[in-house]
Design goal:
Helices cover 8% and strands 43% of the residues. A hairpin with a 2-residue loop joins β14 and β15. The chain is built from two helices and 37 strands. The relative contact order is 0.08. It is mainly beta. Strands 27, 28, 30, 31 and 32 form a five-stranded antiparallel sheet that branches. Strands 1-24-23-22 form a four-stranded antiparallel sheet, with no helix packed on it. Strands 2-3-4-5 form a four-stranded antiparallel sheet, with no helix packed on it. The longest helix has 22 residues. The protein is elongated and about 110 Å long. The protein folds into three domains: 269 residues, 6 Propeller (Neuraminidase); 78 residues, Sandwich (Immunoglobulin-like), CATH 2.60.40.10; 73 residues, SH3 type barrels (Roll), CATH 2.30.30. Keywords: Kelch repeat, Repeat, Signal. This is Fibronectin type-III domain-containing protein. It comes from Paenibacillus contaminans.
C-alpha cells in the first residue's frame, strides 16, 4: 500500500506541475523579436495603422508598383489572427490614421500614384462602417499625423504647413509652420509633446506652438517607421538610396536624455512599413523590400527601472485651491498626487497620470490644512512618496467694511462700523463659542461718546446675544 500511495502521490504532483506549466502564458524575452501571423494582403507605401481596444487596424496602402488598395484588416494579438473588414470608400496611399473616442479617422493619400486626396473618412470598429468628415483644406503628400487630446496634428510633408483637425467641431485650423518641409517622416505623442522624426528629429509643443530641434537619429534614412513604448520612442528600418539599402535597424530614443541607443535588429529589413504599440509590445507591419510584404514581427522592449521618488515638492495655498510643484524625475511617464488632512498620512490618491510637474487641487475647503505627497510612475512601477508638503487655502481678505448690528436679550441694539476683517473675527468667535469652545465674551471698540476717555470698549456676552446682522458696504474714496 505504501508503494502504491507514493506512486499515486508522485503521479498527482506530476499532473499538477504539468497543468501549471500549461496555464502560464509564454512571455517574450526583452529586446527580442518574434514572428507573428502575416497580413492577409501584402501592403506598403505608408498605409494607415491604428489601435483600438487592443486590436490593430491597417488601412489602404499599395501592393504593387502602381495599384492603391482599399483593403482594411484587423489583427487580434491574443489569437494572432487577421480578419478582413469593410473596405475604405476610396482606395488610396499613403494615408494617416488616428483613433479618437472609439473611431478611427483616415486622412488623405492619393490614388494609383495620381491626384492627391483631401478626404477624411471615419471607420467605426463597432459597426464596421464608414462615414465622411470635413476634408483637409489643402492636398498634402508624404505628411505625418498624430492625435493629442482629441485633435489631430497633420505635418507637411512636402510643405512646412501644420494643420490641426478638431474632431469635436469637425473643423481645421493652422499652426506654426515646421522649420522646413519634410517627407517620409513620422510623428508620435509623448506626454503631450510631439516628436517628428525621420532623417532628423524636431519637437513640437502644442501648448506653446513652438518647435525645438533634438538629437538626430544615428542613421539618415527615409521611409522609416516610428512608435513608442514605456515613455521611449522607437525608430524602425527605412531605406538608404546610397547603396539601395533596406534597413532592419531599431533605435531607441530617450526624450529625458535626448539620446539614441541601438536595440535588437528586426528580423526583416523593410521600408514604407508601419509600427504600432499594443499593450507595451511593438509591431512592425508590412512594407517593402524588393516586393511588398505581408510579414509582421513583434518586439518586446526592455522594461524600464522603477523611477526615483520626486523631490522638492512645494504646496501654496490660495482661495479654494492649493498649487503644487515638484522636480521632474528621469524616466517617469507621469505622476500621482496624494493628499491627507493628517500630517504623515494616510494619503488618498486625488490625481493619476499627471503629465507635468505641477498640479492644482481645487477640491479643498478654505481654512483646512492639507498634506500632500507625489509619486512618479512608468512601466517599471510606482516610486516611493516624495517629501510631504502642506498648505492651507484661505479666502482673500476683504477691503470692504460692514455695519454689525447685535441685538441683545434686553432689547438693546449695538451698532459697530467695522472692517470685514473685524467682522470675520467676530463671526469666527461666535461660531467657535456655539461649538463650545472659546471665551464667553467678545470685546469690540465702541466709537460713540468717548468723552474724556481715550477709548471705550463693549464686552459682548455670548449667551446675551439674540441675533446679529451684517450689512457690507464699499467706502467712498
Amino acid at each position: 500500500m505504501k508503494s502504491v500511495s507514493k506512486f499515486l502521490l508522485s503521479l498527482c504532483l506530476s499532473i499538477i506541475m504539468f497543468t501549471s506549466v500549461l496555464a502560464i502564458p509564454s512571455l517574450a524575452a526583452e529586446n527580442t523579436w518574434t514572428t507573428k501571423a502575416p497580413m492577409l494582403s501584402a501592403r506598403g507605401n505608408n498605409f494607415g495603422v491604428a489601435e483600438y481596444n487592443g486590436k490593430i487596424y491597417v488601412f489602404g496602402g499599395r501592393n504593387s508598383s502602381s495599384v492603391s488598395i482599399a483593403k482594411v484588416e484587423e489583427y487580434n494579438p491574443i489569437t494572432n489572427t487577421w480578419t478582413n473588414k469593410q473596405d475604405m470608400p476610396t482606395a488610396r496611399e499613403p494615408v494617416g490614421a488616428a483613433t479618437i473616442n472609439g473611431k478611427i479617422y483616415v486622412f488623405g493619400g492619393h490614388v494609383n500614384g495620381g491626384y492627391y486626396q483631401t478626404a477624411v473618412e471615419v471607420y467605426d470598429p463597432a459597426t464596421d462602417t464608414w462615414s465622411t468628415k470635413t476634408s483637409i483644406p489643402n492636398p498634402e503628400y508624404f505628411y505625418s499625423l498624430v492625435e493629442v487630446d482629441g485633435k489631430v496634428y497633420l505635418f507637411g510633408g512636402s510643405s512646412k504647413k501644420v494643420l490641426v483637425y478638431d474632431s469635436v467641431t469637425d473643423t481645421w485650423s493652422e499652426k506654426a509652420q515646421q522649420p522646413a518641409g519634410r517627407e517620409t517622416f513620422d510623428a508620435v505623442n509623448i506626454n503631450g509633446k510631439i516628436y517628428t522624426i525621420g532623417m532628423d528629429n524636431v519637437l513640437y509643443d502644442p501648448t506653446t506652438d513652438t518647435w525645438t530641434p533634438k538629437a538626430n537619429p544615428p542613421v539618415s534614412a527615409g521611409s522609416t517607421a516610428l512608435t513608442y513604448a514605456n515613455g521611449k520612442l522607437y525608430l524602425l528600418g527605412g531605406y538608404k538610396s546610397s547603396g539601395n539599402q533596406y534597413l532592419n535597424n531599431l533605435y531607441e530614443y530617450d526624450p529625458n536624455t535626448d539620446t539614441w541607443t541601438a536595440r535588437a535588429n528586426m528580423l526583416t529589413a523593410r521600408s514604407s512599413h508601419e509600427a504600432i504599440n499594443v499593450n507595451g509590445s511593438i509591431y512592425a507591419i508590412g512594407g517593402y523590400n524588393a516586393s511588398f510584404l505581408k510579414t509582421v514581427e513583434m518586439y518586446s522592449p526592455p522594461t524600464p527601472e522603477q523611477p526615483a521618488a520626486p523631490i522638492n515638492l512645494t504646496a501654496t495655498g490660495g482661495n479654494a485651491k492649493v498649487d503644487l510643484s515638484w522636480s521632474a524625475v528621469a524616466g517617469a511617464t507621469g505622476y500621482n498626487v496624494k493628499r491627507s488632512t493628517t500630517e504623515g498620512g494616510p494619503y488618498t490618491t486625488i490625481a493619476t497620470g499627471v503629465a507635468g510637474t505641477t498640479y492644482t487641487d481645487t477640491a479643498v475647503t478654505n481654512g483646512t490644512t492639507y498634506y500632500y505627497v507625489v509619486t512618479a510612475v512608468n512601466a517599471g512601477g510606482e516610486s516611493a512618496n516624495s517629501n510631504e508638503a502642506s498648505a492651507t487655502p484661505q479666502a482673500p481678505a476683504s477691503t470692504g467694511r460692514a455695519i454689525l448690528t447685535i441685538t441683545l436679550m434686553n432689547g438693546i441694539e449695538k451698532e459697530y462700523d467695522l472692517s470685514m476683517a473685524e467682522v470675520n473675527a467676530f463671526t469666527s468667535w461666535y461660531d467657535a463659542k456655539a461649538d463650545g469652545t472659546g471665551p464667553a465674551r467678545y470685546t469690540l471698540d465702541d466709537p460713540h461718546a468717548k468723552g474724556p476717555f481715550k477709548a471705550r470698549k463693549d464686552n459682548i456676552i455670548f449667551d446675551k446675544i439674540i441675533t446679529f446682522d451684517i450689512d457690507e458696504y464699499t467706502p467712498e474714496n
